[in-house]
Amino acid sequence: MSFTSPTTLQGRHATLEPLSMDHHDGLAAAVADGELWKLWYTHIPPPEQMRAEIARRLEVQATGDMLAFAIRRNDTGALCGMTTYMHIDAPNRRLEIGSTWTAASAQRSGINTECKLMLLTHAFETLDCIAVEFRTNFMNHQSRAAIARLGARQDGILRSHQLMDGGALRDTVVFSLIASEWPTTKRHLQYQLDR
């Protein structure tokens, strides 16, 4: 299977669907839940820029560098966020899971944990990845804690890594999981979801 073959991943709490323009209205509503674009330390589009963000992700996907997903809640059927495989390096069997956001009402619900479990399972068990990365802004303490709870290890901090909107410099914290760690991490994530 190609790293960028559109695929649907189904769990108990959420379903990851290949991103399309058909998701626009639902994602515009989801991002308004919590006004996520107001978080200064990350880039999440406001509702009026959602169409452009979907188009951007699909354009990057067409180059083979990304596989984008919309996140759908299974309990209500509503869309509640986006996530991607990005910086795909198929020859070296590596990718990053990122550009993820979830509506405020979906946070701390098990949806993010299950989405990461589905993405990691597909990456390690179907795509045969040797490593999966996660990156976040040093100032995004909620994201850093969530990545650490997954079982990923911090590899380092890329200082002054990116220029953000408004001119601030972003220090990027890099985490990863490697294939040999996957069985233990998978068991840990399944335990978290079953609690």
From TrEMBL:
Is Acyltransferase there in the keyword field?
yes
What EC number is given for this enzyme?
Answer: 2.3.-.-
* Top-level EC class: transferase
Q: Where is the N-acetyltransferase domain?
A: 15-153
Q: Which UniProt keywords apply?
A: Acyltransferase, Transferase
| GO terms of molecular function | acyltransferase activity
The record, for PANTHER family, names: BLL6696 PROTEIN (PTHR43610), N-ACETYLTRANSFERASE DOMAIN-CONTAINING PROTEIN (PTHR43610:SF1)
Q: What is this protein called?
A: GNAT family N-acetyltransferase
* Protein species of origin: Undibacterium arcticum
